Amino acid sequence: MTPRPEHNLETASSRICPFCAESIKQEAKVCPRCRQWLTLRSLRNPAIAVWVYGLPHVVLYGLLMMLILTAFDRIENPKPDYAAFVNSLRVMESRMNWAETSSGPRIYITGILTNQSDLAWRDIELECRFLDANGRLVDAAHPHVFLTIQPHDDTAFRADVNPSRPTNDYAASRVRVSTARNTKGLFW
Fold this sequence. Notes:
Layout: E1 14-16, E2 23-25, H1 46-76, E3 89-101, E4 104-115, E5 121-131, E6 137-141, E7 144-149, E8 154-161, E9 172-182
Antiparallel strand pairs: 1-2, 3-4, 4-8, 5-6, 5-7, 5-9
């Protein structure tokens, strides 16, 4: 018996897999031993498929979510926006009252709020500036007042503020409306 010649894969038509160091055919796109992709120029390569198919889908879903959230915001807070009616809600008078609570001293701002517009407003955010005896600003807060004020009406309010300085640093306060929401929204 004559020995059979072995097939030598180390010819010009073979190459070495960079992942498992096996000899493979020159035209192979996937190593038959380790199953690693050897070329990036194929749409069947999972890494390329993610970039070609996956990335546009992520962008498309992101844009769709932005449209849905924008539509929901328009339903929740319809036009007109409070920015067009900045001077329509005014704090006619306000007082700064101190109270000792279990979590420390609190400032309660009480006052009268008036609506001079033809629209009803809700969820009012106040800007409270606290001044010392010399009139310098020592603290500020933006408490929310969850009430509804009807057109050409007034209402009393109370806002709760946690002070950041000792009580003797607060001599006076200035209160104004920072923002409010239109009551025409579908959800409360």
